[in-house]
Specification:
Structural class: mainly alpha
Shape: globular
Number of helices: 10
CATH topology: Glycerol uptake facilitator protein
Helix content: 55-70%
Mean pLDDT: 89
């Protein structure tokens, strides 16, 4: 692209306006910080709801005081909306290694930028669960009980709320991550998407995914979220973590390459 500026400065007459350069975009540090804080908000909202509010016992009239699966799904959807509108304009609002890799596969994000984004997302998620562990530790025995229960980690068999096996977890993570990434790619498309509503649509999609799949494997579709909880979830959570890194990435890459081939062609 040629430089639109003249080779030599020309004095402007009083009726002319000197051209101004477009403002520079966010710095690399700013985009990585936005991914850190966006992922922090996502994991903080989701795991706080799961550990502090989902099962809060019953009131005097016998009604549940917890928010249950519906409340947890709503919490993560709202966290996505908040993060998308607060930090999305800076970094694009991925907040999820699977989304970052899916967008790269779709040709919508440079592969060279994926490592930095993923590192920031993992650190943001880990910071969020560390804050949750710190809060919970103010109550005697809370941390030990949360750890023994898996710390809302993803898993199958004993770590599945509904007792589902590894096969169900694999299918869920591939299919529902692909769904999420396809929605992200579609709603943020430069010519066919609607950026004004993208954060809301993505947040509702994430809430829908959690409503459908929490009983199966506690819903990952986000390796940064899975890593963040497995850190505090004990041996079983760490032993199962590989699946919630590998299979969301598989689903994301399938969605990225498929969307690119079907709807955007193969032109780079």
């Amino acid at each position: 692209m040629s430089d639109p500026r003249p080779e030599k400065p020309v004095a402007a007459t009083p009726l002319e306006h000197t051209p101004t350069e477009a403002p520079a975009g966010p710095s690399t540090f700013a985009t990585l910080a936005a991914e850190f804080f966006g992922t922090f908000v996502l994991v903080l909202g989701l795991i706080s709801a799961a550990l502090f509010a989902s099962d809060f016992g019953v009131g005097d009239n016998g009604s549940s005081l917890g928010v249950g699966f519906v409340g947890v799904a709503l919490a993560v959807g709202l966290a996505i909306v908040a993060g998308a509108y607060a930090f999305g304009p800076i970094s694009g609002g991925h907040f999820n290694p699977a989304v970052t890799l899916g967008l790269a596969a779709a040709g919508r994000f440079p592969w060279r930028g994926t490592a930095g984004y993923i590192a920031a997302q993992i650190l943001g998620g880990a910071a969020a669960t560390s804050i949750i562990a710190l809060i919970g530790s103010s109550q005697a025995g809370w941390f030990e009980a949360a750890r023994d229960g898996g710390f809302a980690s993803n898993g199958w068999d004993a770590l599945s709320p509904g007792g589902f096996g590894i096969g169900g977890a694999i299918v869920v993570e591939i299919v529902f991550t692909a769904l999420l990434v396809a929605v992200v790619i579609g709603v943020t498309h430069p010519s066919r998407g609607n950026p004004a509503f993208a954060g809301l649509v993505i947040g509702l999609t994430v809430a829908l995914i959690h409503l459908a799949t929490i009983p199966i494997d506690n819903t990952s579709v986000n390796p940064a979220r899975s890593i963040a909880t497995a850190i505090y979830g004990g041996g079983d959570a760490l032993a199962m973590l590989w699946a919630f890194i590998v299979f969301p990435i598989v689903g994301a890459l399938l969605a990225g390459f498929t969307f690119r081939g079907l709807f955007d062609g193969t032109k780079r």
